[in-house]
Amino acid sequence: MRFRTITVSMKFQVCTCWDDGVLNDERLAGLFRKYGAKATFNLNPGLMSDVRGTSYWIKPGDTNWSCRGYRTGKLALRDIPEVYAGFELASHCWKHENAGSIPDDQWLKSAMDARKYLEDAVQKPCTGFAWPCGVFTPGTVEALRGAGFTWGRTTQNADDVLAENPEPLTLKSSCHFQARDFWSKYMAARERGGVFYFWGHSYEMFDCEQFWDQTEGALRYIAEDPDAEWINVADLAARLGK
Ligand SMILES: [Zn+2]
Questions:
Q1: What is the Å distance from ligand 1's center to 20 Cα?
Q2: Would you call 142 helix, strand, or coil by DSSP?
Q3: Which phi and psi (to 5°) does residue 76 adopt?
Q4: In contact, 234 and 47? CB cutoff 8 Å
Q5: What is the overall mean pLDDT for the chain?
Q6: pLDDT computed for residue 79 by the predictor
């Protein structure tokens, strides 16, 4: 009797997610499509409206929140299906409420309201979550679990996301997309056949071509890496659960 040899090749896997549902996501989603990347966008529909916002550099005396002086506009609610077509969506609370800042039952309602809105908008399950400002508490972790959420990303980092994430609801990523150790962590994950998971906010690239070129260069590199394959964050969470 002859046995056929079956070679199982497990590729190095890459996933990414992006927070807050801002105007710059449209350009970023275009780049992800161009390079065949998978991505998850974590949105707070309660901070979006029927009108597209505008982005601008704040003037002296402007006390509105900004990222290093860049005040980002939000996408309109009606933009959601088209801008994010083909990508995964996840809850980032209704109005970006931090865990522990309001009673847990109200907080869970906020997390669920965002999820329900997104599920209605794109007609598919959105059981992922990104912790606003990375904040979580034991009570809110259990609340998410009880409501059927499957993963929740924090702002903490792991050297090895497969080994250091026993709890998918408080997921550590590899790093932020602008981290100095982005490529060393990428190479280390690649070397071990693991998972590299990066995240960010598209507004952190402002309208600065240098930053956008840097991100496009990374996506091009990953697309051309024969050992890399894109997965969704949900796929990582499913892998951790086994
Ligand atoms: Zn956020």
A1: 5
A2: helix
A3: -80, 155
A4: no
A5: 95
A6: 97
Domain residue limits, the chain:
12-240
- 185-196 pLDDT, tens per residue? 999 999 999 999
- CATH label, 12-240, candidates 3.20.20.370, 3.40.30.10, 1.10.565.10, 3.40.50.720: 3.20.20.370
**Would you place residue 4 in the very low, low, confident or very high pLDDT band (cuts 50, 70, 90)?**
low
Strand positions, DSSP E, 64-142: 70-71, 88-91, 128-130
Q: In the predicted model, what is the mean pLDDT of residues 64-87?
A: 95
Distance 73 CA to ligand 1 centre (A): 13
**Cα 224 to ligand 1 centroid, rounded to whole Å:** 30
Distance (angstroms) between ligand 1 centre and the Cα of 192 equals 31
> Where is 217: in which H helix or E strand?
helix 209-224
How many Å lie between the centroid of ligand 1 and the Cα of residue 187? 28
Distance of CA 143 from the midpoint of ligand 1 (Å): 19
133 C-alpha to ligand 1 centroid (Å): 6
* Predicted pLDDT of residue 9: 56
Which of 69-73, 74-78, 141-145, 150-154 is least confident? 69-73
